[in-house]
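Design request, tokens follow.
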């Protein structure tokens, strides 16, 4: 009898272990910016201003070739595989396809919108009965007596859509997002103006993750109504709510490699975090924009900070093959700790602490692979 009970107990333990391993496998498997309408490559100076914690010991320098563990060492955000867009490579097609496929609603939050093809697609959507709503940056432009978004807003309103000046609660509404039918969102680093489809290095991410899309829509509605909101989705990076903490977390927890694209180098805390990462043995490479001066002197506004970074062990270059407008981080690619970020957030205190901005943390392997390939190509070209 005792032997029989023992066999039953062993069988139960084996089944429990199998169920646990099956669950692990299942989880692993699912797992500044200036007014460019006036001058596409003008300085961030025309933009409205757009101590590291304890971290694990660095991984070996050849982490790219390291064995990939079957289970990631961090949270895999959502079980929905998104699609990465790169500009200028992908052009307008992904944006136009998303808008043209809308059946019920399109919600847009944008810094600048003037591209005729994009505006025409939104107008056509409104005319066929889609509920089109656009929140566009206004106050920081009006303070300079320039109104780059008015033509598009008026065209959308005339077609039966709605266009809403962004709240003055934010220094700049710099978020760049399109959500269709409450089910699919495109999170962009680029604006909806012509130069971003031909002259700039930028990124976008199309997601159908209900948690991500739901929160984007909740924040859109709050911003539309000019009411407060406290976003909490772990994979989304919002200014002024949590972007500083989440971006610094990626930098501060990098173990072996860190690739960075950003238009600006103005935030001291972010620059110090990059230096601290290099000091603890992380290979840090940073491509910045080459900024012209608003005074016409031709001085690159990022040059001085690149010199400081290079002297402190960060490898920093000014990108010349494309205007570097994208904001991207890729940490520990090729290891079990890999994760990325794309978003509208510049390395400036205004962008991180005072603007409305949005980015997304990525664990999607195909997206990370594409980001890595684009960065390596850009690095080699500069």
């Amino acid at each position: 009898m005792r032997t029989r009970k023992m066999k039953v107990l062993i069988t139960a333990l084996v089944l429990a272990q199998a169920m646990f391993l099956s669950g692990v496998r299942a989880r692993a498997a699912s797992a500044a910016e200036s007014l460019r309408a006036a001058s596409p490559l003008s300085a961030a100076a025309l933009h409205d201003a757009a101590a590291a914690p304890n971290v694990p010991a660095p991984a070996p320098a050849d982490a790219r070739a390291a064995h990939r563990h079957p289970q990631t060492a961090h949270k895999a955000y959502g079980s929905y595989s998104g699609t990465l867009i790169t500009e200028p490579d992908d052009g307008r097609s992904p944006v136009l396809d998303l808008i043209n496929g809308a059946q019920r609603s399109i919600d847009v939050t944008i810094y600048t919108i003037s591209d005729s093809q994009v505006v025409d697609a939104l107008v056509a959507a409104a005319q066929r009965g889609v509920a089109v709503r656009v929140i566009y940056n206004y106050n920081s432009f009006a303070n300079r007596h320039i109104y780059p978004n008015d033509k598009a807003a008026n065209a959308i309103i005339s077609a039966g859509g709605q266009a809403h000046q962004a709240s003055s609660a934010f220094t700049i509404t710099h978020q760049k997002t399109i959500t269709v039918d409450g089910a699919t969102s495109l999170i962009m680093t680029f604006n909806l103006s012509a130069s971003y489809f031909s002259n700039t290095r930028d990124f976008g991410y199309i997601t159908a993750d209900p948690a991500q899309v739901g929160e984007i829509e909740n924040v859109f509605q709050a911003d539309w109504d000019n009411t407060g909101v406290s976003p909490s989705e772990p994979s989304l990076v919002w200014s002024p709510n949590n972007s500083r903490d989440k971006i610094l977390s990626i930098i501060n927890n990098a173990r072996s490699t860190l690739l960075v694209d950003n238009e600006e180098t103005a935030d001291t805390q972010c620059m110090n975090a990059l230096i601290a990462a290099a000091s603890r043995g992380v290979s840090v490479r940073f491509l910045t924009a080459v900024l012209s001066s608003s005074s016409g002197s031709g001085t690159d506004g990022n040059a001085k900070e690149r010199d400081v970074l290079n002297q402190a062990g960060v490898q920093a270059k000014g990108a010349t093959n494309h205007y570097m407008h994208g904001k991207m981080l890729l940490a520990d690619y090729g290891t079990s700790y890999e994760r990325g970020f794309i978003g509208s957030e510049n390395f400036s205190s205004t962008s991180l602490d005072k603007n409305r901005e949005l980015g997304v943390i990525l664990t999607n392997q195909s997206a990370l692979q594409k980001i890595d390939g684009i960065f390596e190509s850009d690095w080699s070209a500069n």
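Comment from the thread starter after seeing the answer: thanks! The first helix runs from residue 2 to 30.
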